[in-house]
Amino acid sequence: xxxxxxxxLFWLAVGVLISIWLPNLFVEVLCIILCLLAAYELxxxxxxxx
Length: 50
What we know:
- It is built from two helices and no strands.
- By secondary structure, the protein is mostly helical.
- The longest helix has 20 residues, at about 1-20.
């Protein structure tokens, strides 16, 4: 569980750094939505227990 939390915190920090350089709020929100959709697909839809 510690490794998962560390992994999540690392990528959270990367996301914060990227958001510093994005031009406006709309682009940031668009990137957040795209990342959430990709995470959903990877976490819930790519299971091998079908």
